[in-house]
Amino acid sequence: xxxxxxxxxxxxxxxxxxxxxxxxxxxxxxxxxxxxxxxxxxxxxxxxxxxxxxxxxxxxxxxxxxxxxxxxxxxxxxxxxxxxxxxxxxxxxxxxxxxxxxxxxxxxxxxxxxxxxxxxxxxxxxxxxxxxxxxxxxxxxxxxxxxxxxxxxxxxxxxxxxxxxxxxxxxxxxxxxxxxxxxxxxxxxxxxxxxxxxxxxxxxxxxxxxxxxxxxxxxxxxxxxxxxxxxxxxxxxxxxxxxxxxxxxxxxxxxxxxxxxxxxxxxxxxxxxxxxxxxxxxxxxxxxxxxxxxxxxxxxxxxxxxxxxxxxxxxxxxxxxxxxxxxxxxxxxxxxxxxxxxxxxxxxxxxxxxxxxxxxxxxxxxxxxxxxxxxxxxxxxxxxxxxxxxxxxxxxxxxxxxxxxxxxxxxxxxxxxxxxxxxxxxxxxxxxxxxxxxxxxxxxxxxxxxxxxxxxxxxxxxxxxxxxxxxxxxxxxxxxxxxxxxxxxxxxxxxxxxxxxxxxxxxxxx
Length: 510
Prior knowledge:
Layout: E1 5-8, H1 25-38, E2 46-50, E3 62-69, E4 72-78, E5 87-92, E6 98-104, E7 110-117, E8 122-130, E9 135-143, E10 154-160, E11 169-173, E12 179-184, E13 195-201, E14 206-212, E15 220-228, E16 231-242, E17 246-257, E18 263-267, E19 273-275, E20 279-283, E21 288-297, E22 305-312, E23 317-324, H2 327-334, E24 346-353, E25 359-376, E26 382-400, E27 406-412, E28 416-419, E29 429-432, E30 437-442, E31 451-456, E32 462-468, H3 470-473, E33 475-477, E34 483-484, E35 489-496, E36 500-508
Parallel strand pairs: 1-3
Antiparallel strand pairs: 2-36, 3-4, 4-5, 5-6, 7-8, 8-9, 9-10, 11-12, 12-13, 13-14, 15-16, 16-17, 17-18, 19-21, 20-21, 21-22, 22-23, 24-25, 25-26, 26-27, 26-28, 29-30, 30-31, 31-32, 33-35, 34-35, 35-36
């Protein structure tokens, strides 16, 4: 197995709508008949574009996909030993042909903080650190689409002492690709509070600066930070006391308006329920950021349904709702003889807003089996080692109407089993178009590992086909690191065992 790690950078807001699903059963059946008459359930009319394979070496060990803008596709690579220096940036044309490739930050005191892909440029934020004096300067390097430096590097800020450390600065790109947010911690003891929030425009000019101070006496952490519509939004995690001895982990959604400086806290629990780790996605139609998670009853850790909390970014309002698991869905997924422990294997993977206000919720079932084994070396010394088996099972899709009723649900059968790889080539990627859902995944249960593509229409009908044959691919796709870059285009990273790393663009016919 090629040990080549890839991290994707999704742009918030790339959510796309499915057709409106009629509530009238007869009307729905008539439309299905018309649909089937016009074209088959699965019309795999894709255009497949490959980038030229690139050998995986020590200097190109890690690949980070930046995404796509009007000028092309961009990614950068770093070495196995150094993740923040000697940065190799690659620009591809829209047809995935190489445009240019250049290396940056070769100075001994230069360290990468973040590369942000904007509409017409790349901004590379890096620090120059003077370890002797304990001073760190943050600079912005602007690159055009041919990776040429456009102007002199712009100084952004200077920090001293502990604040000069690399891990105290985080950068988040704006949803519209025309701004970015810098989040700076004051010191190692305050990584999640008393933060400085700085908004930069596409030219690196500061437009807003605020402090984020949360008056909570208990220890807490911030996670899943996003920058959308000039607001900083994050999930605050802490333990709430319940009685003398009991503590319960709970979450608060922190919303900081960077235009006015106003902060709001939204509780993500209720008097009789709590929520699990959630997803954040933006709905362009309603201009709302949505937190979606499982909810469970107090004094329980077994999920009972879906929880949604929406924060409207163009007005000061929010709403929440709970959607209990439908028995039909649960029976198909786990069987009627299921135990509550089975629910621990269910994970929420994606939430999509339908054009009529309904929801598409996508889950996957997965488990990890830990085995402790004893062995004896050739010298007679006994030692213990651990094997980790990763199991990724079926994909489940639920389509819910605006009134929370279940319109249809579908199971995509798969069984991916791997050993000691953290399930790197398992799971799936999902592309959302106007009238289709596409799921791509490796078929890892057979000796020949094909890449499968499964298509689902707005009525829950679908079928899967081999997308890339094992003999032709000679490697593995990495579906969990795939990203959608337009309403009909999808980037899928692939590792070919002999040729190296490649990006595949899947372009669906409009």
